[in-house]
Design goal:
By secondary structure, the chain is of the alpha+beta class. It is built from four helices and seven strands. The protein starts with a strand and ends with a strand. Bound molecules: coenzyme A. Coenzyme A binds next to strand 4, helix 3 and helix 4.
Amino acid sequence: MIRDVQWNDMQDLVNNYYSYYGEMENEYPDMGLIFYHSRPEFVSEIDWFSTFFRDIQAGNAIGVVAEEDGKVIGLCDVHRKRPDSDVSHIGILGIAIRKEFRDKGLGRQMMEAIIERCRGKFDMIVLDVFSNNQQAISLYKKLGFIEYAHLPRGTKRGNKFYDEISMYYDL
Ligand SMILES: CC(C)(COP(=O)(O)OP(=O)(O)OC[C@H]1O[C@@H](n2cnc3c(N)ncnc32)[C@H](O)[C@@H]1OP(=O)(O)O)[C@@H](O)C(=O)NCCC(=O)NCCS
């Protein structure tokens, strides 16, 4: 089921987020998410979620989740770029799904749902993606995102660099 994020989703979302750290550390070192150098404490996650919820209430963020068997297993979010400024017509998108639930079409469904919710609230959605993240890039292109920039070595993880591609979607 694809639905709007709710206040009581916090624990599942934090568990998911921590699972991405485990995945990056143990099996997928090139995983295309931006990680802090150390896993944030639970208390920082509470701050993150509270801020996210306040931003949703203020009309500055949208969150869509995928739920399977009563558990939230993926999040797609859009945050307004600098509210009350000359760039606040732009929303910045992020998406991640737990490993066991990828390649089943949930990413596409969450993206389609959030794009619809962004209409009338933003004029444009932007995102950054590692250039080696072919699945994500192919999904974004199929949905109509257009590449507008390529930043060589845009991310540095340990001693390894990753190029970043920036894409936009006109709403
Ligand atoms: C990227 C991600 C959100 C995509 O979600 P998903 O549910 O796995 O993707 P879907 O099952 O909806 O598939 C999306 C499309 O990619 C295609 N695809 C799958 N694997 C692919 C590959 N290796 N190369 C190219 N395309 C691929 C699928 O065929 C599908 O296309 P379709 O809708 O026309 O059939 C998910 O894989 C994920 O969370 N990855 C880890 C975190 C991440 O990389 N986030 C993105 C950061 S920018």
